[in-house]
Design a protein that fits this description.
Elements (H helix, E strand, L loop, with lengths): L1 H9 L2 H53 L8 H12 L2
């Protein structure tokens, strides 16, 4: 608001309004750029957390329920081995 009052008193209201418009557009651009920059790492972190949760907590509980004496298909065996590799 003070910029508009200053611009009006100095006789440069048109330049002041243009400057305010440019500042608002720049802020919108920076916000949009920041959101688009952070989106991919947040997705990666989210899926890494889900994978860790499954391998660390859900899989061991499921193994207790399953009969371990039976044979497993290849993808299931890989999942079981990868669950045992994590600390």
């Amino acid at each position: 608001m003070s910029l508009i009052i200053t611009g009006e008193s100095s006789g440069n209201l048109d330049k002041t309004l243009k400057l305010i418009s440019e500042m608002i557009n720049e802020n919108k651009r920076i916000k949009s750029e920041l959101i688009s920059t952070l989106t991919y790492p947040l997705y990666c972190f989210f899926y890494a957390f889900i994978t860790y949760f499954i391998l660390e907590f859900a899989l061991p509980r499921m193994l207790n329920v399953m009969d371990l004496s039976g044979k497993f298909h290849c993808p299931t065996a890989i999942l079981l081995i990868s669950g045992n590799v994590l600390p």
